[in-house]
Amino acid sequence: DGYADKAASKIGKHKPAGDFRGGKYSAYEAGTRVPTIISWPDKIKPSKSQALISQVDFFASFAKLIGAKLEDKGTAADSFDMLDVLMGKSKNGRQFMVEEAFTMALREDNWKYIAPQTKPTPGWLANKDVASGLQKTPQLYDLSKDLREENNLAEKMPDKVIFLTEKLTQIMKTQTRE
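Above: the chain's sequence. Below: its structure in token form.
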């Protein structure tokens, strides 16, 4: 990705992001989606899940696993208990998730909203060969039909953009007050 590690010249046909668009530093799915493997013999049955979770959810989930109480309201305020998802007992993950990659994005169900970029693009990003997702107009993708985030529906669905913009704004206001 522009470092002196020669990764770009040695990568060959390997595609670290699979078919997703973007990569490290990107607001697109390749920059935020991470496969997770959970193994606990005799406790977790092998399965696959598309449940939406965040790595910050490990805090609350593992606290529940070991019986630790999160008494302080500020402790891991953005971590949700996803233990049943991690244990393969539920496929119901988060309803929404905020993402940050030099702009803000919101995943809700199969929808991905990427807010317009309002600050200057960092100079060091210029030498990265990755689709960043940073643009001056809003982006809206239906990930159930467009995992590569190639069909921006923002102009066709302005009500959905307004709804997700307002939801993201409200979440950010709530988080900055806590």
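Residues 158-177 form the longest helix (20 residues).
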